[in-house]
Specification:
The protein is an alpha/beta fold. It folds into two domains: 354 residues, Alkaline Phosphatase, subunit A (3-Layer(aba) Sandwich), CATH 3.40.720.10; 51 residues, no CATH class. 30% of the residues lie in helices and 18% in strands. The strands form six sheets. The chain has a ten-stranded mixed sheet with strand order 7-8-4-3-9-1-10-20-2-21, sandwiched between helices. Strand 5 and strand 6 form a beta hairpin. Helix 3 packs across helix 14 and helix 8 packs parallel to helix 9. It starts with a helix and ends in an 11-residue tail after the last helix. The relative contact order is 0.17. Bound molecules: zinc ion. Zinc ion binds next to helix 13.
Length: 509
């Protein structure tokens, strides 16, 4: 009887809440339509005719979250393996917009289910907003340094052909720490294998653009004694010991016009596997190789949407991730793997929002696969970004709109998009300099894969953003990755969990 009464009261309350007009009183924390004249009106009806109309839906969801939090047990086991996923340029705005791209604001990226999150401060020694070279040194070698330099400390002068040979200024990555402790190390990227992010694992250079011998010669001349990043990957102390190296960048391996570093690699051992297509990678017998170099394109690997569009024989990030982990799982002492979704950033630099969000979805799939084929008992997985971008997601779109849609009408009478950038090449195609006014963005946006999005400030490439980036963690010692910390703390926390390196170690307690 009492229950029945409660149900009636509850139902009446729900009906009452629903039939109230959506206007807000002064005391309520909601939009004032006077201040938001562009707020699209949904009338007085609920946005979606579904379970979200019910109080019980939100209560149940909250309850289950609290229960999950309470059931959580600290995992303080020693990590045998660690996988570090890096979304280059993947700021929080990118993640929130990617959810909508994947089907709605309520969607979750795979790693958003990880139990622990923190924030990483990305500034470097000489700049407030960093590039991918200095951050790679930070999150892989544990030392902050100057823009454009990799695997060296801040005493190194950028682009200095003599200083770059001074090994007293070198710093070493968690890849080396892992191998020195008897574990295997390797990496996967969608950029060139010698690009800034993965290079932090194995290279020491005063200049990130010295990926190939040709680039070195342009800066330092012939016979300078400066080793390109590609040379260091094949012949360097760390590079020559890596078990897995996958990505693009075949062009970087050409040397003195005749020889090729890939031939050097193949010549070192019959067990040095090499693949250059998706078909070769997927059919390779992993027991037939000790090491694996996969180089699938001349420069960066193609965007996922272009791969589909052009039917290219290149593996997805998820496929490369699965193969890399399968190979690493042969290692008795465990491994450290670095896996980069590198083209989230390159798309943002061109203000190509759709590509960037699609690459973020691909990145999420790779992490899902990694978590599925490894155990939380012995494998720590972390996910982060090196820096953000000046990417914005705004306006009062209806819940059923697409993220690539317009958000409303702006003060100049023209539509504006939900996605915009502060800086980049997108300015040019969205501003009529004769009429000194914006071009209607709906005339171009969202229709093509490579469409670029409206941008406030003209620049040939979009500038990075300076705010903190998120870190997500799952597995042994994942709870260390909470709070707000300096980016260079990341490898020290990984090393603590893995019990490797010269710093603090979980097994020394
Ligand atoms: Zn970048």
């Amino acid at each position: 009887m009492k229950n029945k009464f409660l149900v009636i009261v509850l139902s009446l309350t729900i009906v009452a809440v629903h039939s109230m007009p959506k206007r807000c009183t002064e005391s309520e924390d909601c939009y004032d339509e006077q201040l938001h004249p562009d707020l699209p009106s949904n009338g007085d009806s609920p946005v979606l005719d579904n379970e979200e109309d019910l109080n019980s839906y939100w209560l149940e969801k909250s309850k289950s979250f609290v229960q999950d939090q309470l059931a959580r047990e600290l995992n303080s086991k020693k990590a045998k393996n660690a996988i570090f996923f890096l979304g280059d340029g993947m700021g929080l705005t990118t993640l929130a917009a990617a959810r909508v791209y994947m089907g709605g604001v309520e969607k979750q990226l795979s790693f958003e289910k990880f139990p622990y999150t923190g924030l990483s401060k990305t500034y470097c020694v000489d700049r407030m907003v960093p590039d991918s070279a200095t951050t790679s040194t930070s999150y892989l070698c544990g030392v902050k340094t100057n823009t454009g330099t990799i695997g060296v400390n801040a005493q190194m002068k950028r682009s200095d052909c003599e200083d770059t040979k001074n090994s007293t200024k070198y710093v070493y990555s968690i890849g080396k720490w892992a191998m020195d402790a008897g574990k295997a190390a390797g990496f996967v990227t969608t950029t060139t294998v010698n690009h800034a992010s993965p290079s932090g694992l194995y290279a020491h250079t005063a200049e990130r653009s010295w990926e190939s011998e040709m680039m070195v010669e342009m800066s330092c001349g012939k016979n300078s004694g400066v080793e390109s990043i590609a040379e260091q990957l094949i012949h360097g102390d760390v590079g020559s010991r890596l078990k897995v190296m996958m990505g693009g960048g075949k062009m970087n391996f050409k040397r003195d016009g005749k020889t090729n570093l890939i031939d050097d690699y193949k010549g070192m051992s019959e067990k040095n596997g090499f693949v250059e297509t998706r078909s070769e990678l997927m059919s390779l017998d992993l027991n037939s190789v000790d090491r694996l170099l996969g180089v699938f394109s001349d420069v960066h690997m193609d965007y996922n949407l272009d791969k589909i569009d052009k039917n290219l024989d290149q593996p997805s990030l998820e496929e490369m991730t699965r193969r890399a982990i399968e190979l690493m799982q042969k290692e008795k002492n465990g491994y450290f793997l670095f896996i980069e979704g590198g083209r989230i950033d390159t798309a943002h630099h061109n203000n190509e929002a759709k590509l960037s969000l699609d690459e973020t979805e691909q990145f999420s799939k790779a992490i899902q696969a990694a978590r599925e084929i490894t155990s939380e008992d012995d494998t720590l997985i972390i996910v982060s970004a090196d820096h953000s971008h000046t990417f914005s997601y705004s306006g009062y779109m209806d819940r059923n709109q697409k993220i690539t849609d317009e958000a409303g009408i702006a003060a100049d009478g023209l539509p504006y998009m939900a996605l915009n950038y502060v800086t980049g090449p997108g300015f040019k195609s969205h501003y009529d300099s004769n009429k000194r006014q914006r071009i209607d963005p709906t005339s171009t946006n969202g229709k093509e894969i490579h469409a670029n999005w409206p941008t406030a400030v003209p620049q040939t490439g979009a500038a990075h953003g300076g705010e903190d980036v998120a870190v997500y963690a799952s597995g042994p010692w994942a709870h260390l990755f909470t709070g707000v910390f300096e980016q260079n703390t990341i490898p020290h926390m990984l090393a603590y969990a893995l019990c490797i390196g010269d710093g603090l170690k979980s097994c020394d307690k």
